[in-house]
Specification:
about 80 residues; alpha+beta; about 15% strand; single chain; two-stranded antiparallel sheet; two-stranded antiparallel ribbon
């Protein structure tokens, strides 16, 4: 094994030990390393990067919400 590969390999292992993966994003599939970077979607229990939220919300809009026409908008006697 050449020296450069060995140094890279050891450096990579050290980096992995310092930044363990806490989860994988259910939207993009990439690793999440810090809980501050993650969100749990209540309805689906998906774990996603906070940076993925906007795209996730657009793609799953009708799983997370419903159209007004699905309710009777005139029935507000609740």
């Amino acid at each position: 094994m050449n020296r450069l590969y060995r140094e890279y390999s050891e450096e990579s292992r050290d980096k992995i030990r310092q930044n363990p993966v806490i989860a994988y994003c259910d939207h993009c599939g990439f690793a999440i390393y810090e809980s501050d970077d993650a969100l749990t979607v209540n309805d689906t229990e998906d774990i996603i990067h906070s940076d993925c939220w906007e795209e996730y919300a657009i793609e799953h809009m009708f799983e997370l919400t419903k159209r007004i026409s699905d309710d009777d908008p005139l029935d507000r006697d609740n």
